[in-house]
User: What shape does this take?
Amino acid sequence: MSFIQSLLIVSLLAAPSVHAAIDFDTAVNVLRKVKVALGKTQESEGVRLTFNLAWKRSEFSATPSCQSRSSEGHLVFLTGGVARADYMTADTFAVIACHEAAHCFGGEPRVIRGASVRTGVTVEGQSDFWAANTCLREYFANQLASQNLSGSDGGLTFDRGITRICQSAYANQIDQFICAKTIASAEGAVRGSMRKGERVDIGTPSPLVVSATDLDHPSAQCRLDTFVQAAVCPQGECLNDRPRCWYHPSSGEGP
Assistant: This one.
């Protein structure tokens, strides 16, 4: 088995459509890099995750299959329709891949399966938080390293609001750049998946305060708030600061 086959199960090794928002090679390359970004997590958890890319399928579908036994491994299934969405870029595709992987690796709170044992997948809000705080942080750090960039010469400009947020959170230019890349990419993914009539504004957090942790999909604004909060927090920290538009401390998973 070749190196790429060991990382990915690819359903179709044919040339991609010229109309794809990102092409086949780009999608495969992103998933390979997300796998690398997940390396430390897979090692510490003792379980591997595989991406199954069904390129020929046109519907938009991204689904995790998280196994309770490490010997079985986790699987994230994505269709070519995800890559061909009008709004898709390599970075927004990485956001989606990290989010789906986070359903398996993101920890508590989880969707309860069975009578009381929390053995299910990580809830949507926490999957967004973990995706930005862990997976995308590693992904963009590796991207900077591979391009020999320092953060100050990343060749990208960001929305002033994003730049201000990240400069306030970090003194180091590399951390600022990774933070800004994470927020900008996540905002693209959130805007692309918004329901009709929804609006988001990076400077106007959701006023909603839940009385119990939301186990379903938060609003688009709440999702963006979560990505922002995760991006400005050091990795693995600030769990008590997760946005109250979906998270409530009484969910019982600890700080």
About this structure: The CA atoms of residues 196 and 220 lie 11 Å apart. The chain has two domains: 1-105, 151-255. The chain has a mean pLDDT of 86. The first helix runs from residue 3 to 7.
